[in-house]
Amino acid sequence: MNITADFIIIVTLIAILYAGLVRYLQFKTIDRNRMKGIQKELNAINKEYLQAMKAKNEKRTEELQKEQQKLMPEFNKMMMSQMKMMVFIIVIFLGFMWVVGQLDPNTVDDVEVEFTLVDGEWCGEIPLSGEYRGPWLFQVTAYSGGGEKGQNGTIAYYENEAGILPTVVNKGDRFPVWSDKRVYSEGETALICALPPAGTDRVVGKTNSGTWFMVELPFTLPIFNTSVINEAYWWFIAVSIVAGIVLSLAMRQFDGGKDGKKKG
């Protein structure tokens, strides 16, 4: 497997930069203290409104309704501002993901092959060569009418059966994928076949040529039951989430410290 520590560091820094940029934009464009203040006022009004309703105090309920109506335009404006910011953040996220994909050094040797339909099976021949011995991932994608219908893959070995296995991606309609051999020698061609779901009109096979992004974690992720992250974009997402949480906690501490000084 070919993966450099430098690229892991680069993706980590990009993720931290993204998390910091998002928190900065949220901090600058949204008055969090005012938002909390309005929410606190509205909650107090709603609580008192219910009490007034139970007491059948019509005069007080009308007064509370007017107070609520005064606050709602400002509250709605802030909520709309948050929604616009979320759209902007999604665009930024997609941009950062694109950058991570473009910088990934492990995709330059990927080989893609159009499969051919023969006797009900879609097959393609992928030549094996290069210096990276060990497990190779063969990922197969089925299309229908130009849209992706499903994705699955298989793993075969080039020269050496040792090594940590890459992750096979399963998406959409599942279907079997297999290779004609388990272990290949240098210069051989791997025959990869699949039985994609009904309605498939195009099948594309791709191999990572034995190189892929991988980070071994010191613990097992509970939901995914794995201690290995095999894709650069998953590492980017994981680091950005952790960095976002840390930055949010730091910002709360900072705001708390400012409020304490003001009260003092």
Question: TL;DR of this structure?
Answer:
With about 260 residues, the chain is of the alpha+beta class.
SSE arrangement:
Elements: H1 5-29, H2 32-54, H3 58-103, E1 111-114, E2 116-118, E3 121-127, E4 134-144, E5 147-158, E6 171-172, E7 177-179, E8 183-184, E9 189-194, E10 202-207, E11 215-221, E12 226-229, H4 232-263
Parallel strand pairs: 5-8
Antiparallel strand pairs: 1-10, 2-3, 3-9, 4-5, 4-10, 5-6, 7-9, 11-12
Helix pairs in contact: 1-3, 1-4, 2-3
Distance from N terminus to C terminus (CA atoms, Å) equals 59 Å
Count of the separate structural domains: 2
Strand elements, count: 12
Label the structural class: alpha+beta
Residue ranges: pLDDT <50 for 5 or more in a row? none
Question: Strand-and-helix sequence, N→C?
Answer: HHHEEEEEEEEEEEEH
Described by strand count, sense and barrel closure, the largest sheet is: 6 strands, mixed
Determine the fraction of residues in helical runs and give it as a percent range.
40-55%
Can you put this structure into words, describing what you see?
By secondary structure, the protein is an alpha+beta fold. The chain has two domains: 5-104 and 232-263, no CATH class; 110-210. The chain has helices at residues 5-29, 32-54, 58-103, 232-263, and strands at residues 111-114, 116-118, 121-127, 134-144, 147-158, 171-172, 177-179, 183-184, 189-194, 202-207, 215-221, 226-229. Helix 1 (5-29) packs across helix 4 and helix 2 runs antiparallel to helix 3 (58-103). A hairpin with a 2-residue loop joins strand 4 and strand 5.
